[in-house]
Specification:
The protein has 13 helices and 14 strands. With about 400 residues, the protein is α/β, with parallel strands linked by helices. The protein folds into 2 domains: about 270 residues, Alkaline Phosphatase, subunit A (3-Layer(aba) Sandwich), CATH 3.40.720; about 100 residues, Alpha-Beta Plaits, CATH 3.30.70. The protein has an 8-stranded mixed β-sheet, with helices on both faces. The protein is globular and about 60 Å long.
Length: about 400
């Protein structure tokens, strides 16, 4: 382990992108820029703590000016993997670069697959089409309650989603239905995630619950998480991180109800004495606001997170390193409700981090994994560590 850094706190602001990638046109995402466009749409963002860290030094964000002496090192990262989904982004952060995107099914899943799926779960299904989650629940929720048929749907992402009312199909059964789908979705049907989407309420007033559960593919190679555990370091997952990595490379975890719960649980873990990493995902930006084109909700969520930064910073020990980044974009001002293929911001903060270093444009999200490997003296050959860049003293240690 590095002589000075004992813990890494890696926080992924789910979908908080910062500008279209050079190949965004291949995905229909020209002009996307989640942070910049949200700021413009609401007349400016109030993010004083992220501003101090140097967020406004990465791009011109209305209301978030650049500063002469940022408290963090800053830059942005390019996604090398094909695709723009949650699994791809998180895997690349952890050191897995994918050559081809996960399959998507804009017209629903093949009829033969659905027939076999229904046979295995002992229920017929409703839906089997691409649709926003809240919309399809409103459309089919009443019929689902009458027939007890689960609702199957997908999106522009590589997902197979199953929605069910908690009083119609118990959670355990819903999870088992999703496990069956996960076992069946292989080869050309190997979507990135199968997602259980439970909801409650009555027709006209349905509401999704926090009991969502993701069933992901296992990463095709060893991630930095796997390697850290092999080297006897702790890897603590907060939020849906454990689902994204199919439980691999994680020593302890807690699911979260929302962004603020994610911050609370991260702060609780920071009180624990350990060597290793806390890996937190804050999902609300993406799930509640990006996909729903809720610009003002997105802006409010950013400002709520910004207001918690002083707590996070105060909870850091001298030998902690904080990394703030994202996994893709989901520009709520962009046409459609899909993720957007964007750069992601990179802010690196800590007692032993040189302030205000411009880390430039990183070639891959995997530079995070390479840096973590560098800190904990783990051999790793994907990405380029920025550890020596944020403080030249590291090069000589």
């Amino acid at each position: 382990m590095h002589k000075k850094i004992k813990r890494v706190v890696l926080v992924v602001l789910d979908s908080v992108g910062i500008g279209a990638l050079p190949d965004a046109h291949k995905y229909g995402d020209e002009g996307s820029n989640t942070l910049v466009n949200v700021a413009k749409a609401v007349g400016g963002l109030n993010l004083p703590n992220l501003r101090k860290m140097g967020l406004g030094n990465i791009d011109h964000i209305l209301g978030v000016d650049s500063v002469d002496k940022p408290t963090a090192s800053h830059g942005k990262m390019n996604e090398r993997s094909a695709g723009k989904d949650t699994t791809t982004g998180h895997w690349e952060i952890a050191g897995i670069i994918l050559d081809k995107p996960f399959p998507v099914f804009p017209n629903g899943f093949p009829e033969e697959f659905i027939k076999e799926f229904q046979k295995r779960i002992g229920r017929e299904i409703l839906g089997n089409k691409a649709a926003p989650g809240t919309q399809i629940i409103e459309e089919l929720g009443e019929e689902h309650m009458k027939t007890q048929k689960p609702i199957v749907y997908t999106s522009a992402d590589s997902v197979f989603q199953v929605a069910a009312h908690e009083e119609v199909i118990p959670l355990d059964e819903l999870y088992n239905i999703c496990k069956t789908a996960r076992e069946m979705l292989t080869g050309e049907l190997a979507v990135g995630r199968v997602i259980a989407r439970p909801f409650i309420g009555k027709p006209g007033n349905f509401k999704r619950t926090p009991n969502r559960h993701d069933f992901s593919l296992e990463p095709p190679g060893k991630t930095i998480l796997d390697l850290m555990v092999e080297h006897n370091y702790e890897v603590i997952a907060v939020g849906k991180v454990i689902d994204i990595f199919a439980g691999r490379g994680i020593t302890e975890h807690k699911h979260t109800k929302n962004n603020m719960d994610g911050v609370d649980k991260t702060l609780c873990y920071l009180k624990k004495d350990f060597s290793g990493m806390i890996f937190t995902n804050l999902i609300d930006f993406d799930q509640l606001y990006g996909h729903r084109n809720d610009v003002y909700g997105y802006a409010k969520a950013l400002e709520e997170f910004d207001a918690r930064i002083p707590e996070i910073v105060s909870a850091l020990n001298e030998d902690d390193l904080l990394i703030l980044t994202a996994d893709h974009g989901c520009d709520p001002t962009h046409p459609g409700t899909d993720h957007t293929r964007e750069y992601v911001p990179l802010l690196v903060y800590g007692h032993y981090v040189q302030k205000g270093v411009n880390l430039g444009v990183r070639d891959t999200f995997a530079d995070v994994a390479a840096t973590v490997a560098d800190i904990f003296s783990i051999p790793f050959d994907v990405g380029n560590s920025f550890l020596s860049e944020v403080n030249e003293v590291y090069a000589d240690v």
